[in-house]
């Protein structure tokens, strides 16, 4: 890893972006965070990063040739909201990314790492999901991210951009004082932790009659620090003219009930659960094959243990009490 590079981190006041920004700084890089604080938090911007409060749609004002690359996290990312307000997702995710690609072209910044998502695959019938699995998003959020992936591919082919899209599965855990504070929260582990904290009465289990060992949905949880390490490796692996797409997950699935049970054990608190009907669009199993990330990035997750992921997230939420 070469040191002393200068990177723009869009969305660096958010959950994943703040953790990656902290890792970049720790590796000796210079970091500028661009974030409009629409879902992010000023306190999440790591010390040592320059902070610009602004929108990616206006990124051309700040991006210049002094930057060695961009890590692009800024997006709207709530599935339910994307169904109710698709226009927000096309505008912010696709329109914002288009403005970013144009600014990068104009400034001659030729390296990009993009936060793509497992939602681009929709509900595949086969598991684990590889990058060759057909993309068939089932909501505007996943569709908007897939559209950005297509835009990036053509930018690489036509204009020589070096780009890596990382398709995250369920990001979880925390990195010291950097963790998940979405509002509204829609992710399972922080929601179950809210029950353990007494902030929420019970956790709803949406469907317990799926064809899985305990009947509840199985998902692939990846520690946010493992995810961050993949971003640093992606910066090194990015090659002019190529759009490399890599899934990021542990390749292990945990059921909703396993997550709840793990939270009970880690926190020592009771976690009442309520079984509710299935939600539309929830596939039984979503597990990643991350073989390509291992092969092309040299990435190896080291924090795959669910109890460890939950323990780090629990420590983070208790800091905020
Ligand atoms: N968290 C997950 O499990 C997960 C899974 C798959 C993909 N992703 C993707 O990873 C990225 C980061 O997710 P997160 O969980 O950290 O979300 P987050 O909401 O915590 O972070 C997104 C950040 O982008 C900022 N932002 C949004 N629109 C902006 C704009 N137009 N200009 C400037 N800043 C803007 C927000 O204020 C926020 O700080 C997103 O692109 C998301 O789609 C996340």
Automatic annotation (TrEMBL):
It catalyses: UDP-alpha-D-glucose = UDP-alpha-D-galactose. Residues 8-247 form the NAD-dependent epimerase/dehydratase domain. Pathway: Carbohydrate metabolism; galactose metabolism. Keywords: Carbohydrate metabolism, Isomerase, NAD. Its EC number is 5.1.3.2. One of its GO terms (molecular function) is UDP-glucose 4-epimerase activity. One of its GO terms (biological process) is galactose catabolic process via UDP-galactose, Leloir pathway. It is an enzyme of class 5 (isomerase). Pfam families: Epimerase. Its cofactor is NAD(+). InterPro entries: Epimerase_deHydtase, NAD(P)-bd_dom_sf, UDP_G4E. PANTHER family: UDP-ARABINOSE 4-EPIMERASE 1, UDP-GLUCOSE 4-EPIMERASE. Homodimer. Belongs to the NAD(P)-dependent epimerase/dehydratase family. This is UDP-glucose 4-epimerase. It comes from Streptomyces zagrosensis.
């Amino acid at each position: 890893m070469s040191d002393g590079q200068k990177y723009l981190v869009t969305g660096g006041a958010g959950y994943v972006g703040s953790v990656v920004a902290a890792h970049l700084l720790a590796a000796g890089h210079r970091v500028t965070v661009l974030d409009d604080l629409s879902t992010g938090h000023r306190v999440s911007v790591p010390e040592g990063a320059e902070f610009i409060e602004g929108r990616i749609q206006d990124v051309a004002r700040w991006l210049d040739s002094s930057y060695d690359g961009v890590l692009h996290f800024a997006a709207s990312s709530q599935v339910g909201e994307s169904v109710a307000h698709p226009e927000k997702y096309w505008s912010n995710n696709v329109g914002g990314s288009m403005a970013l690609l144009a600014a990068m072209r104009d400034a001659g910044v030729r390296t990009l790492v993009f936060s793509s998502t497992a939602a681009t695959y929709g509900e595949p019938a086969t598991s684990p999901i590889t990058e060759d699995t057909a993309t068939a998003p089932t909501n505007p959020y996943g569709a908007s991210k897939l559209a950005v992936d297509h835009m990036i591919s053509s930018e690489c082919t036509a204009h020589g951009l070096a780009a890596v899209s990382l398709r995250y599965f369920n990001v979880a855990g925390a990195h010291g004082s950097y963790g998940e504070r979405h509002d509204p929260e829609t992710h399972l582990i922080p929601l179950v932790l809210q029950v353990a904290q007494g902030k929420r009465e019970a956790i709803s289990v949406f469907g317990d009659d799926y064809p899985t060992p305990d009947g509840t949905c199985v998902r692939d949880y990846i520690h946010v620090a493992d995810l961050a390490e993949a971003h640093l490796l992606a910066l090194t692996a990015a090659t002019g003219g190529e759009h490399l797409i890599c899934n990021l997950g542990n390749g292990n699935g945990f059921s909703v009930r396993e997550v709840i049970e793990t939270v009970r054990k880690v926190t020592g608190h009771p976690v009442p659960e309520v079984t509710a009907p299935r939600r539309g669009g929830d596939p039984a199993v979503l597990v990643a094959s991350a073989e390509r990330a291992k092969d092309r990035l040299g990435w190896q997750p080291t924090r795959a243990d669910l109890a460890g992921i939950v323990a780090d997230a629990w420590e983070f939420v208790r800091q905020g009490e």
